[in-house]
Specification:
Layout: H1 2-32, E1 35-41, H2 46-63, E2 67-73, H3 78-87, E3 94-95, H4 113-118, H5 123-126, H6 129-134, E4 136-137, E5 140-141, E6 144-150, E7 152-155, H7 157-162, H8 168-173, H9 179-188, E8 202-204, H10 210-218, H11 239-253, E9 268-274, E10 290-292, E11 303-312, H12 320-332, H13 334-344, H14 354-360, H15 370-373, E12 377-378, H16 386-401, H17 407-422
Helix pairs in contact: 2-13, 16-17
């Protein structure tokens, strides 16, 4: 009986030992198997950016064995495609949603605030502060920027010299480059050279986009919205807002200085709104050009900025830690940022990499203007209604831009419709 009891106990011990060994082997195998994540690339960032992204994924995969990054892509509208994929339960693990649209999709995104805190990362000290704030939704960090791209003013030095005018860079150095000087320069550089009644040289291009006009309004010390993060009130009919937009429109309607063509066409003196990512597009143009800071407003200088942000999907919690390691590599490691700078010409959000921008991006001389612009650039609003706000603006402002409707009437309609949206919490 004793021998049988001992035998039974020994058998149990052997079985338990075998089970433990098997579980240890299984755990070791799992530990050695990398977690595969999909970074869903956006065609909106261009081939150069996505080619570098693929190269970095290969480098990252080779540098460690815990995470394997695969680069995926979608056709058509990226944000719409992500929403459809999220509804099906598979939106990818790392995303590139357009800046402000992320505010309407926080239900599918991971709040990275706790990961930043856990790892002792103060993003506002490592990254350009306005870029961190601009991607913050109600105090939560759902997106982190790789780049922050403030706007500057592209211009033709030769046309200014030919017209006997001081260039924007010279006027800026003399603290005289403001919107009044811009309008006057555009007017004087709009020329019918042969007297046939057709303009041969235009003073400037001009954007009708809400974001650029919003920055012009901010330079007058006022704003279209009560705050950037989830605004609750729009003020399109504020008298100072109306006056500022009207002066902007006068460059087109009163002075007749706005070109119907792009700056690249070569017959326009200025391009307000150029961003760092545009630089490489002008590498082979057949005219001399440079960059200056945007004009000052009556109160301050303000420019719109955009970001190349990355987000982590909240769909599969098992992959979030792996996705976070990849995101940290892209956002906080200076080496990937330098490769992106060289390949795309875009200004980094990583403060440590900003001095390298001037070294690695070699032209034009005035590219230095983008660095001080980091201190006064502002992001667009973060609102779940951003798509509809833009649709309303485009619909109502286009007739004003075409000279077919009154500014105040359009601003009244825009304000009423936008405030109706903002009242929906």
């Amino acid at each position: 009986m004793i021998n049988e009891s001992i035998a039974r106990k020994a058998a149990v011990v052997l079985v338990v030992t075998a089970m433990v060994l098997l579980s240890l082997v299984g755990a070791t195998a799992l530990a050695q198997s990398p977690v595969t994540i999909v970074h869903l690339a956006c065609g909106c960032h261009g081939n150069a950016f996505n080619d570098i992204l693929s190269e970095l994924a290969e480098e990252f995969n080779a540098s460690q064995s815990d995470v394997r990054v695969e680069i995926g892509s979608v056709a058509g509208n990226y944000d719409d495609a992500v929403q459809v994929m999220a509804a099906a339960g598979n939106p990818g693990d790392v995303l590139h949603l357009q800046n402000q649209n992320g505010a309407s999709m926080t239900d599918i995104l991971l709040n990275m605030t706790h990961l930043l805190q856990r790892d002792g990362i103060d993003a506002s000290k490592l990254l350009v502060p306005h870029a961190v704030e601009g991607l913050n939704v109600r105090g939560h960090q759902y997106s982190l920027p790789i780049f922050a791209q403030p706007r500057g003013l592209g211009y033709r030095p030769d046309l200014f010299e030919r017209g006997g005018l001081e260039s924007p860079s010279v006027l800026e150095a003399a603290n005289s480059w403001d919107w009044a000087a811009f309008a006057e320069s555009a007017k004087r550089l709009t020329i019918d050279r042969n007297g046939d009644g057709e303009i041969d040289q235009w003073g400037t291009t001009l954007s009708r986009n809400r974001t650029n006009i919003q920055a012009r309004v901010r330079s007058a010390g006022v704003s279209m919205f009560d705050r950037i993060d989830t605004p609750t009130q729009a003020s399109f009919t504020d008298p100072q807002v109306i006056e500022t937009i009207q002066s902007y429109l006068d460059v087109k309607h009163v002075n007749g200085s706005v070109s119907p063509e792009s700056f690249q066409a070569g017959n326009t003196a200025m391009f307000p709104g150029i961003q760092p990512g545009h630089i490489l597009n002008y590498a082979n143009v057949d005219f001399e050009w440079d960059i200056a800071e945007m004009p000052r407003g009556s109160v301050t200088r303000a420019v719109h900025t955009s970001f190349n942000g990355v987000q982590i999907s909240a769909t599969d919690p098992r992959k979030q830690e792996a996705a976070w390691q990849w995101v940290k590599f892209l956002v906080f490691d200076p080496e990937p940022i330098r490769k992106f700078m060289v390949g795309t010409g875009r200004t980094p959000a990583l403060i440590e990499a900003l001095p390298d921008y001037l070294r690695y991006v070699e032209f034009p001389e005035g590219r230095t203007s983008f660095v001080p612009a980091m201190s006064y650039a502002q992001a667009d609003i973060m609102s779940p209604h951003i798509t509809e706000i833009n649709r309303i603006w485009n619909q109502e402002f286009q007739p004003v831009w075409d000279g077919e409707a009154s500014l105040f009437g359009a601003m009244t309609r825009i304000q009423d419709m936008v405030n109706a949206l903002l009242s929906q919490h």
